[in-house]
Design brief:
The protein is mainly beta. It has no helices and 11 strands. The strands form 2 sheets. Strands 2, 4, 5, 6, 9, 10 and 11 form a 7-stranded mixed sheet that branches. A 4-stranded antiparallel sheet has the order 1-3-8-7, with no helix packed on it. The model has no long low-confidence stretch (mean pLDDT 97).
Length: 131
């Protein structure tokens, strides 16, 4: 059974940093494209960042580029999201997700940023940024 377990969320002030982690179980981690998405209250889920299977390529949403960094450790079956210079508008539930080779055979836009390509999702971790 596949499980993605996020951790690291919390309440911080504007300008602070947080590092989210997502541990994966029950899948061959290195064969999955991993992504982070978020959903704020009253808004649709949106793409945050994604990383290729071997970690050599990443895509970011424009509003997060330069502030957020996605990385992965295939030996630990874990993907990370380092978030710096946090803003109140970053407040949301953050989800990690996994997409198989069949769903994303080549790491490229727009497939890699498309939430519908990701079959497995974590339960989410709340990030709240106060002003």
């Amino acid at each position: 059974q596949v499980q993605l377990v996020e951790s690291g969320g919390g309440l911080v002030q504007a300008g602070d940093a947080l590092r989210l982690s997502c541990a994966a179980y029950g899948l061959t981690f290195s064969t999955y494209t991993m992504g982070w998405f978020r959903q704020a209250p009253g808004k649709e889920r949106e793409f945050v960042a994604t990383i290729s299977r071997n970690g050599d390529r990443q895509y970011y949403a424009d509003s997060m580029s330069g502030r957020f960094t996605i990385s992965r450790d295939n030996a630990k079956n874990t993907v990370y999201l380092q978030m710096n210079s946090l803003k109140p508008e970053d407040t949301a539930v953050y989800y990690c997700a996994a997409a198989s080779i069949a769903a994303i055979p080549f790491f490229q836009r727009p497939k890699s940023t498309d939430a519908t390509k990701y079959a497995y999702w974590g339960q989410g971790t709340q990030v709240t940024v106060s002003s």
